[in-house]
Amino acid sequence: MKILFAGPSLWDVPAAAMAPLQLRAPARQGDILAAVCEGATAIGLVDGIFGNVPSVWHKEILYALEQGVPVLGAASMGALRAAECAAFGMVGIGEVYQRYASGALVRDDAVAQTHAPAELGWRPLSEALVNIEATLDHLLQVELIDSDVDQRLRAAANVLFFAERTFEQVVEKGGFSGAVGESLLGLLLAHRVDLKRLDAWALVQAMMEPIRKPDITWKLERPPAWQKVHSDALQRLRQASLAAAAQDEAGSV
User: Which of 155, 5, 140 lies closest to 71, judged by CA?
Assistant: First the structure.
């Protein structure tokens, strides 16, 4: 059972296109631990929740690796955690990961986006900074904008709060209005580079292939706090299993 945690980075990709991967919502703290306890044979981390709930814990990633479960990360929270846990065996994929791993990218809000809930398919409501910068790189390369426009738009994108980052706001914050602003916005939208989606899809493709188990040469420490978290996770799984069994029995004839 290969489990993929993804949301806004792959919001427009049908789940059927990612079969046989088991697609789950963006991960929060405890989800990777639960996946290991459920018997996952490989875990892909793309999107993760942060802010209003605890985010994916590094310790649960290390636990998965120690248990011989490969963990791959890309595009968003996955790229961040892969850069942080690469030394322990987590596999990073894609350009966003490479930039974090090399130190070229350090700010974690560069991949952050607001998005719609699961009921609306996790549709992004803001634009990730890495996507904006990739779009500007492309427009500059094909000479559709000059270096002055590029610098003004790039500076505007960098100072905007992640939840307010949209191409419209970048153009406005950059000081462009009227016909010039509308023309620039049209260029940005027409030539948008979704770097997060490209990296996330590369992870999906990697998970479709046989994945080698991590080569672990270290041992995970298990302090009392970790033991409690692990015990609680197992208890929740047992309760969920019993509830499912009871429901099946109630519906049988």
Answer: 5
Low-confidence spans in the chain with pLDDT less than 70? 241-253
**Per-residue model confidence (pLDDT) at position 5:** 97
Task: Give the CB-side neighbour count of residue 201, counting CA atoms within 13 A.
Answer: 11
Residue 75 lies in a domain: yes
Q: What is the pLDDT of residues 61-77, one digit of tens each?
A: 999 999 999 999 999 99
Are 5 and 48 contacting, i.e. CB atoms less than 8 angstroms apart? yes
Same-domain pairing of 81 and 147:
no
Which stretches of the chain are DSSP H helices? 31-37, 58-66, 77-85, 95-102, 129-141, 147-159, 167-173, 178-190, 195-208, 224-250
What sign results for the dihedral spanned by CA atoms 176, 181, 183, 188? positive
155 Cβ neighbours under 8 A, 6+ residues apart: 174
**In terms of Cα–Cα distance, which of 135, 117, 142, 240 is closest to 189?**
135
Residues 200 and 101 in one domain: yes
pLDDT at 240: 72
Find the length of the chain. 253
Q: In this predicted model, what pLDDT tens digit does every residue of 31-62 receive, in sequence order?
A: 999 999 999 999 999 999 988 888 899 999 99
Let me know: does 18 contact 204? Beta carbons within 8 Å.
yes
Same domain, 83 and 175: no
pLDDT score for 253: 40
Instruction: Kindly report the pTM of this predicted structure.
Output: 0.90
Both structure tokens of 50: 């942060």
Neighbours of 142 (CB within 10 A): 9
Domain that holds residue 7: 2-107+196-237
